[in-house]
Backbone:
């Protein structure tokens, strides 16, 4: 009886040890697993308003852009050096491009600051994603869930929607101010012919669809890149993530350029009357 009881006790103790070790393994896997969250995580509140990690990162991006802008403004000289000359050439090239697209240097003077600010904000926000600490510095909750303190700005659909509403608002308001309310609305609501009425309805649907295309294109590309790098870094942590990060930095630049160029082209379309476009088509 004694040996049998000893054996049963040893088996019971081994089972408890195995269960404890399995629990620790699961807990470790939970802590070291891939962290993917579709929505931005809340890290605090201010005056009853939620503060998310993407919002905090956006403040850092804005502070960085403001600091660089103030620094460059103080460095401007009457006799430019090499760096200032190169920057002036780059900005002059893009300013001329905007002026040629809008066919007005006056409109270019008004929209160029907005377009370049939008481009730099999106680009720097995408590039900051690969700064050490973004997505890795944070805190654990009681259940073991990890919440990063900083997160890439454009992986939050709320941020891309905010940028989209600004862009679409500027486009629509510009069209009304340049063409007049009645003329601009005639693009979408006209009774000249059944075909013109259908074309107007299609254009109205296209205007509304811009909200989806603008926001989801930027959000989808940046979020997918973040998830891809997280998965690759988890399984192949030493070699493969580096070229993927370089590629995603290029993708971030391209997405910033696409967003800004679409904004510019849609502004041009908004200030162009249908009759003017038809006259140009017939002339060609």
Residues:
């Amino acid at each position: 009886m004694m040996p049998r009881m000893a054996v049963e006790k040893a088996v019971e103790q081994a089972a408890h040890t195995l269960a404890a070790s399995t629990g620790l393994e699961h807990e470790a896997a939970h802590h070291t697993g891939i962290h993917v969250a579709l929505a931005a995580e809340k890290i605090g509140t201010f005056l009853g308003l939620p503060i998310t990690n993407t919002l905090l990162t956006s403040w850092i991006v804005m502070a960085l852009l403001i600091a660089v802008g103030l620094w460059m403004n103080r460095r401007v000289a009457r006799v430019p050096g090499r760096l200032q000359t190169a920057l002036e050439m780059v900005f002059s090239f893009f300013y001329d491009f905007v002026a040629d697209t809008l066919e007005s240097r006056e409109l270019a003077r008004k929209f160029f600051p907005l377009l370049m600010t939008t481009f730099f904000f999106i680009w720097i926000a995408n590039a900051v994603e690969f700064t050490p600490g973004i997505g890795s510095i944070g805190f654990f909750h009681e259940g073991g869930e990890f919440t990063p303190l900083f997160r890439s700005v454009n992986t939050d659909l709320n941020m891309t929607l905010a940028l989209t509403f600004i862009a679409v608002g500027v486009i629509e308001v510009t069209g009304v101010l340049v063409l007049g309310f009645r003329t601009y609305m005639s693009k979408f609501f006209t009774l000249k012919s059944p075909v013109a009425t259908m074309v107007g309805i299609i254009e109205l649907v296209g205007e509304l669809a811009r909200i989806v295309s603008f926001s989801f294109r930027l959000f989808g590309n940046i979020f997918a890149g973040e998830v891809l790098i997280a998965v690759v870094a988890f399984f192949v942590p030493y070699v493969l993530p580096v070229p993927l990060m370089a590629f995603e930095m290029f993708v971030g630049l391209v997405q910033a350029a696409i967003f800004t160029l679409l904004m510019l082209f849609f502004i041009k379309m908004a200030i162009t009357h249908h009759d003017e476009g038809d006259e140009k088509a017939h002339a060609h």
Observations:
- The longest strand covers residues 42-46.
- Confidence is low (pLDDT under 50) at residues 1-12, 14-31, 277-284.
- Residues 40-283 form one domain.
- The chain has one domain: 40-283.
